[in-house]
Structure formats: C-alpha cells, structure tokens
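#onboarding

Welcome to the new folks! Below is a worked example of what a typical request in this channel looks like: someone posts a single protein sequence, and someone else replies with the predicted structure as tokens. Don't worry about understanding the tokens yet, we'll cover that in week two.

Example request:
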Amino acid sequence: MFRIDFHLVQLFFACMPSLAVYLVAQYARYEIRRMEEELELKKKQTEEEEKEKELESNAAEEIGEGSDPELLKVKVRLDKLEEAVKEIVVESKKQLDSSVAKNQDNGSKLERQPNKTSSQSRSEASNSAAKNLKSEEIAPGLSKGTPTESLPVTDASPHDQKGKI
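Example response:
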C-alpha cells in the first residue's frame, strides 16, 4: 500500500509545477481582462469629457458671436426672410393645387380615348366639329349650351363601309 501512496505523491509533485503555471496563467487572464475593461471605461469617460468641452466651447463661441449687435440684426433679418420664403412657397402650392383641380374638372368634361394617336384625335375633333355644325343647321333653335354637344358622334370611316358592302 505504501508503494501506491508513494507513486501518487510522486505524481502529485511531478504535476505540481505545470498546475501552478496553469493557475497563474488563469489569474493573469482574469486580471488582464479586468484591466482592459477599466481602460475602455476610462477612454469612454475621456471622450465624453472632450465632447462636453467641445460643446461648452461651441456654446461660448455662439454666445460671443451673439453679443455683437450687427450679427443679431442680420440673424433677425435672415429669420424674417426665411418666413417670407416659406409663405411664398405655401401660396404657390395652393395655386398649383387649385389649378390642378380645375384642370381635372376640365379633363373630366372632355372625353378622351387613350389608345388613339394625336393625328387621329385631331381628325376626329374636326369631324365632330363639322357634325355639330350640321346639327345646328338642322335645328337652328338650339343653342351651344344644349345637350346636343354631349351626344355621341359616330365616325363612319371608309374601312367600315368596305366591311358593310
């Protein structure tokens, strides 16, 4: 039994130096991490202090600039000009909105056909104007504001006539 104990003691003494080195390394890691965290906190605090100093210096400069009466007058005039420009922009937007609304009303009164080209629409407009004149000749008592203008106009193109023959 003594032999087994003796071997265990030898094993313990043989492992002791490496175990000690391992434990010291773990403690050093812990200390290094703690020191790095402290450094980061110090850096953050110094950056915050620098920012505060910059803000204070900027505020001091603004106060120093604000004490000049000529600069104050210029700032007041600039503010008035900005307000005037804003009012002009608002008025122009209102005018644009009202003109757009009028255009939409006029556009809804006119009948438009989206698939036709501009030359076709011009020829149709001239054909419809000629037919309106013919209808006025037939019924001279009717004025322009009567419903005859809103009656549908049928165009009989030569192509349609060929198909009917």
